[in-house]
Amino acid sequence: MIRVELLQIGSYLAAILSVMGAAFAYVFVRPLNKSVDRVEAAINKLSEELHVSREQQHRMEGEMREMKYAIQKAHDRIDAFLKEHAHHANKN
């Protein structure tokens, strides 16, 4: 008799704990999962933006190297022109 009552109490307790567990999961775990999903999506977006930014930086560094080279060549041509012009001026 006592065993039957203990089994009934155990089954009631298990049912109550199951309902409480489901309520806990619905009230607390579900919103946390949604928050984690949003954070994960934000991190993925930032990662993609960082990748694009690094590609742009790499491209701009290449363009800057080309511009520095072109500027140096222009300076060399100007210097050569001025040197030649000064040389011709000194002859006269």
| Total beta-strand segments | 0
Low-confidence stretches: none
Helix fraction, binned, reads over 70%
Average pLDDT taken over every residue: 91
Note the beta-strand portion. under 5%
Write down the Rg. Answer: 39 Å
The major pleated sheet works out as: none
Overall geometry comes to: rod-shaped
Distance between the termini: 132 Å
- The SS-based structural class is mainly alpha
Explain the overall architecture.
There is one protein chain. This protein has 92 residues and is mainly α. It has one domain. Helices cover 98% and strands 0% of the residues. The chain contains one helix and no strands. The longest helix is centred in the middle third of the chain and has 90 residues. The radius of gyration is 39 Å and the shape is rod-shaped.
How would you describe this structure in keywords?
92 residues; mainly alpha
Topology:
Elements: H1 2-91
Summarize the structure.
98% of the residues lie in helices and 0% in strands.
